[in-house]
Amino acid sequence: MSELPERPDVPQETHSGLAQAWASAGEAAQQVSETRQTEQETTARTTSGTTPAPVTYAVLPAGGAFHVKRDAEVVGYYTDRESALADARKLAGGDSPSRVVIHDDDRRPGEEETY
């Protein structure tokens, strides 16, 4: 949401309270939008055919560190491969059907685990 415009006929205290409420409403609208998007993605995965498409968690090297992606979105950054892999496995275990794809140092897909 855009910023609440100032009005000279409204006392500063009232304007500050309104601006704060305006900002809170914007945050709430963003959260609702994100929740709806997640629900739509879940529904699409579970209702598009007889078998839902698996969610892919990828463990990738990233400039001396590692990150985990859920489908195309980065969901975590890690200092070592073992921590990234452990978290990817934990996430995949709670998101069935899913898979973990472990990429090599050249970012090529390697080992794959299914959940």
From TrEMBL:
Residues 1-12, 101-115 have a biased composition (Basic and acidic residues). It comes from the Bacteria. Signal peptide: none annotated. InterPro entries: DUF2188. Pfam families: DUF2188. This is DUF2188 domain-containing protein. Residues 19-54 have a biased composition (Low complexity). Residues 1-55, 88-115 are annotated as: Disordered.
